[in-house]
């Protein structure tokens, strides 16, 4: 009660939304987009990602404070088209992490 009631007045919890979307695709996909400052911590927390992903140059999201890591550049470019990247750039301040996996 103390931690959820009293402490929430001083340090309110941020809302998180989890969305699962089924993608019908023959290409294996493993990609994660995360805030620049959280890349190392995320890779330490999700150690299996170290085996599959590497930093991907995705210039569409430059300047948003987000990093894209993916299995291949082809998979990253398929996932983050110009239209999707524009939405991500617009709401980058709200994004903690986007993890896409098959």
Spell out the key features of this protein.
4-stranded antiparallel beta sheet, 35% helix, globular, 102 residues
Report what the structure shows.
The chain has 102 residues and is α+β, with helices and mostly antiparallel strands. It has one domain. The protein contains 5 helices and 4 strands; from the N terminus they run αβααββααβ. Strands 2-3-1-4 form a 4-stranded antiparallel sheet. The longest helix has 9 residues. It is globular.
Strand line-up of the largest beta sheet:
2-3-1-4
- Give start-end ranges of low-pLDDT stretches: none
Q: What's the main sheet like? A: 4 strands, antiparallel
Shape descriptor: globular
Task: Please count the beta strands (DSSP E, at least 2 residues each).
Answer: 4
Judged by helices, strands and strand pairing, the structural class is: alpha+beta
Strand and helix order: HEHHEEHHE
The first-to-last residue Cα distance is: 39 Å
Instruction: Please give the share of residues in helix.
Output: 25-40%
**Overall residue-averaged pLDDT value:** 79
- Tell me the β content: 15-25%
Radius of gyration: 16 Å
Tally of helical segments: 5
When the domains are counted, the total is 1
In a few lines, what is going on in this structure?
The chain has 5 helices and 4 strands. It is of the alpha+beta class and 102 residues long.
Topology:
Elements: H1 2-10, E1 30-35, H2 39-45, H3 49-52, E2 54-55, E3 66-70, H4 73-79, H5 82-90, E4 97-101
